[in-house]
TrEMBL record:
Protein name: TOG domain-containing protein
Alphabetized GO MF terms: oxidoreductase activity
Keyword field: Repeat
Organism encoding this protein: marine sediment metagenome
Function: Catalyzes the hydroxylation of the N(6)-(4-aminobutyl)-L-lysine intermediate produced by deoxyhypusine synthase/DHPS on a critical lysine of the eukaryotic translation initiation factor 5A/eIF-5A. This is the second step of the post-translational modification of that lysine into an unusual amino acid residue named hypusine. Hypusination is unique to mature eIF-5A factor and is essential for its function.
UniProt xrefs under PANTHER family: DEOXYHYPUSINE HYDROXYLASE, PBS LYASE HEAT-LIKE PROTEIN
InterPro entries reported in the protein's UniProt record: ARM-like, ARM-type_fold, Armadillo, HEAT, HEAT_type_2, PBS_lyase_HEAT
Keyword match Cytoplasm: no
Pfam families: HEAT, HEAT_2, HEAT_PBS
């Protein structure tokens, strides 16, 4: 019958869409342009006709990936979450499935949707019930989702879950309580800092960092200062002190910049960059000569975040560091600081042997807004590592000397360079760019065609920037 045919067709649509999503279909169908329109139409129809069925099939078909190995429930949950709020009813039903893997996928997907504010109050009671699931991973995901949903009905069930037999469930329940504003969650996590198992202590530290509750600052500082504590736990404590931005954390973090542990020093430098307290400037400058290249790199990053002019000269000197990542981070930081004295050293860095350094030097020159670097950036358009960054920088600088070189770059074999060159020509506003940009409407790359359209809108106004047929 016609109805039976419609049902079979709908089920086929659902199965095909689920396979595309669960097996990473986007990667392979994107290579076959002849199929693009058919696949887009298929997915559009599924979004209208059967998001709940797609959720069901994704769970079942997502058990195996294209290599024949089991996927984690969180991989499948990520695919499920992409279906949006229309999948919520089916996910709620899946929480009662006999297969713990299916229940876990559903709980994790609802948690992800809640975090993105796409789930709603319908999920609260089912997730509360899932706190008593026999599978600990289901209980963990349920706790996480309830914390994100922020519904007061979850408080008492989560308090009960803080006494769960599984350590991870207890920590996730406490974290959820903290997100709901219940002090008992923070109290539990602080108490867990004394747990006999260091992994449990580290989890508690990280949970306190996620919460950013001021009551957690003093206990976290105590962990950071405890030289008998494992370095991984202390390193996590340093990172946890990024939130809230509490001034009490600054001096302890400065102190451990000299710690024996490389991980602790590195985390302290990162935290000081986030806290952005001027007291950290001189200690971070001193760390630019640390024996560890990772610590030096984080110190350079932190100085860029702090934005203090005292960091300029030391960062210029760091452009000659033996490690390429350190030099690159220093170049980035100089761009953030915006001091004109960095222009000449950054121009020199455009010839660095390391592509990372050249990339960040080009980007920094664009941020500095000094036309002294224009000719060097034009030359850098030919650099396969730097080309598109150089084009972006030329657009930022607003100097029309770069127009002809950018027009030539519209024919570069790298689509990123063509996109950046088109964007830059739009920003420069020079009429010489109009005709070459129109020619890009026939480019084989959708991204390039869109960039050309946007650039022409900037040059001539929205009504004049519309592409010819096939340029969408």
């Amino acid at each position: 019958s016609g109805q039976a045919m419609t049902r079979r067709r709908k089920r086929l649509l659902v199965v095909l869409a689920a396979l595309l999503l669960a097996a990473g279909g986007v990667a392979w169908y994107g290579q076959a342009t002849a199929m693009d329109r058919q696949v887009d139409a298929l997915l559009d129809e599924v979004r209208i006709e059967g998001p709940g069925l797609v959720a069901r099939w994704l769970i079942k078909l997502g058990l195996m990936n294209d290599r024949g190995t089991y996927r984690s429930r969180y991989d499948v949950a990520d695919d499920l979450a992409k279906l949006g709020p229309l999948a919520v009813p089916e996910l709620i039903r899946a929480l009662r499935d006999s297969d713990p893997f299916v229940r876990g996928c559903a709980a994790a997907a609802l948690s992800s949707l809640a975090e993105s504010r796409l789930a709603d109050a319908r999920a609260v009671e089912p997730l509360i019930a899932a706190l008593k699931d026999v599978d600990e991973d289901v209980r963990r995901s349920a706790a996480e989702g309830l914390g994100e949903l922020g519904d007061a009905r979850a408080v008492e069930p989560l308090i009960a879950a803080v006494k769960d037999k599984d350590e991870d469930v207890r920590l996730d329940a406490a974290l959820a309580l903290g997100k709901l504003g219940d002090a008992r969650g923070v109290e539990f996590l602080i108490a867990a800092l004394k747990h006999e198992d260091r992994y449990a202590r580290q989890d508690a530290v990280r949970a306190l960092g996620k919460l950013g509750d001021p009551h957690g600052v003093k206990p976290l500082i105590a962990v950071l200062k405890d030289e008998d504590e494992h370095e991984n736990v202390r390193s996590s404590a340093a990172l946890a002190l990024r939130r809230p931005r509490d001034a009490r954390a600054v001096e302890p973090l400065i102190t451990v910049l000299k710690d024996e542990s490389e991980d602790v020093r590195m985390s302290a430098a990162e935290a000081l960059g986030v806290l952005a307290d001027a007291r950290g400037v001189q200690p971070l400058i001193a760390v630019l000569t640390d024996e560890s290249e990772d610590v030096r790199s984080w110190a350079a990053w932190a100085l860029g975040m702090l934005g203090d002019a005292r960091g300029v000269a030391p960062l210029i000197a760091t452009l000659k560091d033996e490690d390429g990542n350190v030099r690159g981070t220093a170049a980035w930081a100089l761009g953030e600081l915006g001091d004109p004295s960095a222009v000449a050293p950054l121009i020199a860095a455009l010839k660095d042997e390391d592509g990372v350094v050249r990339v960040f030097a080009a980007e920094a020159l664009g941020k500095l807004g000094n036309s002294q670097g224009v000719d060097f950036l034009i030359a850098a358009l030919e650099d396969e590592d730097v080309g598109w960054r150089a084009a972006c920088a030329l657009g930022r600088l607003g100097d029309t000397r770069g127009v002809e070189a950018l027009i030539a770059a519209l024919k570069d074999e790298d689509e990123h360079v063509r996109v950046s060159a088109a964007n830059a020509l739009g920003k420069l506003g020079d009429p010489r760019g109009v005709e070459p940009l129109e020619e890009l409407f026939r480019d084989g790359s959708t991204y390039v065609r869109r960039a050309a359209r946007r650039a022409l809108e900037e040059l001539r106004g929205p009504s004049e920037g519309k592409p010819f047929d096939g340029a969408q």
